[in-house]
Amino acid sequence: MVYFLTALYYEAKEIIKHYKMKKVIEAKKFQIFKNDKYYLIITGTGGIKAAVGATYLLSNFGYNENDIFINIGICGANKEKAHIGEIFLCNKLINKYTKKSYYPDMLFSHSFREGSLESFLEIVDKDMIKNVKADIVDQEGAFLYEAVSIFLKPENIYIIKIVSDFLEADSVTPVLIENLMASNLPKVYEWIDKRLNIEDYKNDIMNKEENDMINILCKNMKLSSAMEYEFKKLSKQYKIRNGQILDLLIKYKDVKCNIKAEGKKVYGELKQKLMEL
Asked: How many domains does the chain have?
C-alpha cells in the first residue's frame, strides 16, 4: 500500500485524479481518498495536524511496516538555494523547535534534488530568513516524519517538496499550487512506479558466495556498522531488481583500503551502482 499525505486539497487534486481515487465516506475527521492500492489524506496546514492525520490514517485503515508513505506538497525556499518548481527529496529534516534532525534513508536512486528541510509551526517570511538553516521550509515535514517512523520503516518514508515561492506566502495561490503539482507530478509518478517494482523480501535471498563476498568487502573497505548495514540492505535490493549481484561485487574484491576515508570513497562509488533502478 502507498499512503499520500498533503496539507492542502490543491496539492492533492491531481493525485486523486491520476490514481482515480474515491472519497472515503466513513472518514469523519479528515478528507481521505483511496483506491485498491493507494490512500491519500488531506490534513490541513501544520505539523500537529499532519502528525495526527498520519496516525489516524495508519491506525484506522491498517498498515504493513513495508508500506510506503509519501508526504508531498509545496514549500518555500531561500532564493539563493533553489528555484521555483524544483522538486526536493529531503535527506535531512529539522524540527525548528526541538532542534532534532532526522535523516531519511536514501536507498533508491532518483532524479530529484536532495536537500534539507526545516519545519516551522508558522509561515516563514523573508524577515525570518536569517533563522532558516535548511535549503527549504515547510510546516509539516519533520513533525510528520517523526510520527510515521513509529509505524513504518525509515527507508519507506519520503518527504517530497516542490518549491512554490521565495518566502513570499502571499504570492502562493490555489492556481499556482495546482499548476506546480500538475507539471511536476509526472516525474513523481514515474519514480513511484519504479520504486513499487522493488519487492521487500523478508527471507534472505543472498546465497553463501554472495554473503561471503559482501563480508570480505565490508572488511576491505573498513566500513562502520551503520555503513555495513546499509551495504547489505542495498545489496539485497539490487539482487531483487537484477536477479544477480556477484558480477558487480567481484569488481571490488581486490580493493583494500588502509584508512576509513579511503573505504568511504570506494563505498560511495559502489553505493551509487547499487542504487541504480
From this structure: 2
